[in-house]
């Protein structure tokens, strides 16, 4: 696999960190993850072992053959690194580039994203899976895993190719989607969220939070499972909100905003 090109200097340097990070719902379990730092929100943009969290006794090491290994306790235990990564025993180091790409030998994290794409990372040929494992984006369409049910497809079934730091989503035929704040170089990410929607976020330094500049699905009622059993999904275009109304009795109305 080819090495990364020179880092894009338009992407702020030193804004990404890698480390073993505790899970918010299970502080005694950890993942090897990457996220933007020096900002208030610690949203993870890539994890090596999100399906196989490890204990505090875990180790990240390079074997005598040059293989990068993430093991839970025993040095000879099952390797939890997501794909085989081989480098030179004496010459390879694990490097996090300013683009957010984690590189070791022939391994690149950009080639196997989890639920997020970063600027200048190729989208075509990759797959995003939401953190809850229910939804998948394959660069052309979004679908529900349990039903293989496609609920959104790119216009003309075109393929997303890449995202840049100014907020442009490029298609295979050179057409483009523009974020609402297009033109300003910001920290950005394209993420498949746990509600099944694909959203392009940028970080607003004034608000100290991520804001949505584009999203695939505006009516969440189009996504199977937005509301639970025995309820009706209702969309209000006036404020871009979705309400789940209970069918039986006088159940409570739950309002979900699309952005």
From TrEMBL:
Localization, UniProt: Membrane
Classification of source organism: Eukaryota, Viridiplantae, Streptophyta, Embryophyta, Tracheophyta
PANTHER family for this protein: NON-SPECIFIC SERINE_THREONINE PROTEIN KINASE, OS07G0415500 PROTEIN
PROSITE patterns assigned to the protein according to its UniProt record, in alphabetical order: BULB_LECTIN
Membrane topology: Single-pass membrane protein
This protein's name: Receptor protein kinase ZmPK1
Xref: SUPFAM superfamilies: alpha-D-mannose-specific plant lectins (SSF51110)
Gene3D superfamilies: Bulb-type lectin domain
Example of a GO cellular component annotation carried by this entry: membrane
UniProt-recorded Gene Ontology molecular function terms: kinase activity
UniProt-listed InterPro entries: Bulb-type_lectin_dom, Bulb-type_lectin_dom_sf, S_locus_glycoprot_dom
GO terms under biological process: recognition of pollen
Signal peptide annotation: none
Annotated ranges, domain Bulb-type lectin: 1-117
Key words, A-Z: Disulfide bond, Glycoprotein, Kinase, Membrane, Receptor, Signal, Transferase, Transmembrane, Transmembrane helix
Statement: the UniProt record of this protein carries the keyword tRNA-binding: no
Entry-linked Pfam families: B_lectin, S_locus_glycop
Main location: membrane
